[in-house]
Amino acid sequence: MTGYSINWKPLLYILLTLYAVVTIIPFLWALSASFKPLSEIVSGQANFLPRNFTFDNYKQIFLQEPLFLRWLFNSIVIAVFVTILNLIFNSMAGYALARLRFSGKRFWFFLILAVLAVPAQVTLIPTFLILKAFGWLNSYQGMIVPSMVNATFIFMMRQFFVNFPKELEEAAALDGLTAFGTFWRIVLPLAKPALAAQAVFVFMGSWNNFLLPVVILFDPEMFTLPLGLNTFKGQYISYWNYIMAASMVFTLPTLAIYAFFNRYFIQSVTFTGGKG
Amino acid sequence: MIQHGGFVVFEVRRRRQTKKNITEDLAGYLFMTPTILVMGTFVVLPILYAVYLSLHKVKLLGGIEYDFIGFRNFTRLVDDERVWIALWNTVQYVIIVVPTQTILALILAVTLNSGIRGRNWWRILYFLPTVTSSAVLALIFMWIYNTDGLLNDFLTFLGLPTYNWLGDPQVALKGIMLMNIWSTAPFYMVIYLAALQDIPQTLYEAAELDGANNWQKFIYVTVPLLKPVTFFVIAMGIIGTFQLFDQSYIFSRGTGGPNNSTLTVVLLIYQAVFRNLQIGYASAIAFLLAFLIITISLIQRRFLGSDKPYS
Fold this sequence. Notes:
The complex is a heterodimer.
Chain A: H1 9-33, H2 38-41, H3 56-64, H4 68-99, H5 105-117, H6 120-134, H7 140-144, H8 151-162, H9 166-174, H10 179-190, H11 192-208, H12 211-216, H13 225-235, H14 240-275
Chain B: H1 2-54, E1 56-61, E2 63-68, H2 72-79, H3 81-112, H4 119-126, H5 128-131, H6 134-145, H7 150-157, H8 172-197, H9 201-209, H10 214-225, H11 227-242, H12 246-251, H13 265-274, H14 279-304
Antiparallel strand pairs in B: 1-2
Helix pairs in contact in B: 1-14, 2-14, 3-8, 3-11, 6-8, 11-14, 13-14
């Protein structure tokens, strides 16, 4: 029972392969359905390669649901603005909390830590009422403004800047740069790894967000993709061929981003994983 | 003279300091302004507003009217059968999903860390469900669980009886649990993997000298050293699972059915606002949820010890 005599390796590879199959099957199954006609889908045979390969489902969803492109556009606009604004504002706040000396700093820092503990559901209803009072329901700004700073990432950026070499800023100060000039020209360009990690998370969070849009968007023109997808499912209840094609259209951009930037995804998880 | 001179120098320095303080304050607040404005309007104000709402009966007809009713929204919680159902569903969900996904994440991470070839490729593949939208995953799984879906096809293939997975109140929530364990475990796996790489190899060598086998090394070296990470993973898991909403909403089309079996606390909050227009009552439920999450996080901190202290 020493464990040395047994060769565990093949067993480990079998386990890993099994789990890989479990991971990938739902995606492959959905992808294959998106290329099958409905008759083949309901035939009850589990063939992964479509027998009657067709692009009709993809054509149909764009024809049947003219708003589909609009939802895609809405999702992109919101996610891009939310990401850019988060990168700028969270880094500014994180930098101030790590490096600048100003009165009330401790208070703001503890306030941000406290905010981290409050579940979003508590603020959801009042946020809905406040946005209603602003006339921002069903609008881009209603989706963007409440999400343009994030306590988690302010905290992460602070931890990042605390360990930042001081000499660079001192040199910048000698060159006569203002605090903002130093931040914008010296500090921010050197914070790229932290910014990349943050960008990935914020973008995905916004792209996949369901709770806020379901509460504040009810004009179909303004829907984001997850919401549109859910409505679409409501209309085409058992047309799984259309639903899966629509799901794939929504998933492919994410997968493309993931394929290119997977290094940053993994980094960003470890960043938030208490290693900051 | 000397004393006087010293006094002057002191005065000048102090004046310079105040001037410097003002510019530093200005810079600090320049950097903090966006955060203060947004958090003030969309976090701090809403929390206070939520307290106010929870103490009132709110009428939303064109304008908005408030009738003060004290703690009646909170006392009503106790008598509301659906609150208890939602709580029980959510607690069941947390109790099953958090340990399962944590253990699965640990097993996957340790397996990937044991000198496997192509570790990065496995990791990229496993991480796929984590980057996919919950809306898409919910739709794919609904279809797999469907009466003539892949799961039943597979059971038929094995010669086993098929089942109406989504229609049976006993099973519907378990379907969501399974899906979420599958999609969240890889996220924590990546966190565990990073932590495993920080464990010094010398500790394992020392354990080997003491005659430890692989299992003993895992139990006596790996697990104790991963404790701070496990704390973090469980804490995040608890917070995440208590807030289950998207999947329940999509699976049940917002109803929490069949027979309230997928009704979660957050779905109940949503229904209270948008189906029954009980905004004050919904705020009271939200506070109940916040209270639960914070209490359980504190209990966890007590029993599992704390995360690494923040630097």
